Amino acid sequence: MSKHTVEVMVGKVGIGGINPVRIQSMTNTLTADVEATVEQIIELHEAGSEIVRFTVKDEDDAQAVPHIRKRLVEKGCDVPIVGDFHYNGHLLLTKYPDCAQSLDKFRINPGNVGSGEHHDQNFVTFIEQAIKYDKPIRIGVNAGSKDESIFERLLQENAAKPSSEQKTSQQLVVDTMVVSALESVKMAERIGLPHNKIVLSVKVSKAPEMIAANRQLSALTDLPLHLGVTEAGMGIKGAVASTAGLSVLLAEGIGDTIRTSLTPSPGSSRTEEVIICQQVLQFLGMRHSLPTVTSCPGCGRTNSSVFQEIAKEITDYLLQQTPVWKKKGYRGFEMMVVAVMGCIVNGPGESKDANIGLCLPGTGENSVSPVYADGKKIAMLSGSSRIADFKQMIEEYVESHYRV
Length: 404
Prior knowledge:
Helices cover 46% and strands 17% of the residues. By secondary structure, the chain is α/β, with parallel strands linked by helices. It folds into two domains: 5-284, TIM Barrel (Alpha-Beta Barrel), CATH 3.20.20.20; 292-402, Sulfite Reductase Hemoprotein, domain 1. The chain has an eight-stranded parallel β-sheet. It has a five-stranded mixed β-sheet with strand order 13-14-15-16-17, sandwiched between helices. Strand 14 (337-341), helix 12 (347-353) and strand 15 form a beta-alpha-beta unit. Helix 1 packs across helix 2, helix 7 (169-191) packs parallel to helix 8 (207-220) and helix 8 (207-220) runs parallel beside helix 9. The longest helix is centred in the last third of the chain and has 24 residues, at 304-327. The chain starts with 7 loop residues before the first strand and ends with a helix. The mean pLDDT is 93.
């Protein structure tokens, strides 16, 4: 929950106000490929994305949007969908009213709506469509597509100051994004868009600048903020970059909805970006989306191969079972801690502190593995069925503790 923001409703999902920090994601399918886009939206939603965005870049995409909505309804998926517009959103929303009506929110980048007089007129047309169809918008400013007219204005103002007071180019980029966002809000409200129909974002690929921009923006507005380190990168780098930016702000009470802009590895699932968001919120103690696995890093005391295989298999098992348990109506299992420890040094203690935990014997130790539940030893496992037996014990624990 953010410190002081108003609530904006996106479909049936509230952002800001007293709502929890919401998780968002974005498809990477061709929007005009209705079935592929619908399939990925459902996959992202089932993984935990509460709002899903997709690009609407041309007429083919705009014409596909009503069909995407129809197929989602047919499949029983009510996740709010957001259209991401750049350059021609004012034209597409005007020409294709069914597209505008089918979306739950519009995203506009004020740096990509034209220049000079065209900028203002295109922006006005876009906002008028949001008002006409009673849709909220996100004014999303990116460093890579900032409003150059504002940047030039701030450059000139900066150059006129004494050298001791002048800001760096990086600081001016941050200021440009904040000014662009706030001036866009004022213009949208002058046109007639209600205050509680606007979400803001200022995204940069560098965490320090992203943090600075959002701190500044948070102090100047009560509108909900969407956070993210844009173009975060792949794999570990992308996860760490996103976590570095998000965690600082969220710990300060800044931010109402988040996304990790992760470059997916070839062949990997788009849901990776959702899982990272879940883990960030979980380890900050803000939201719990899935059980937590406590596992040690391993050392010379552990049989590394066996320990790593069990830790990975239990982690994957909990990810797999989370949507299954949700569909069964179980409640509270997201708070569950499962330990998979590698040897007897910290293993018994961590396993006792967990809801349920397996303590491996380590290298050269007794091959029997004790299992603890709620601080008490309940079994001793060994042999080739050890993993399967432990999974079954987790399943029984969930059913007995979290079944409503």
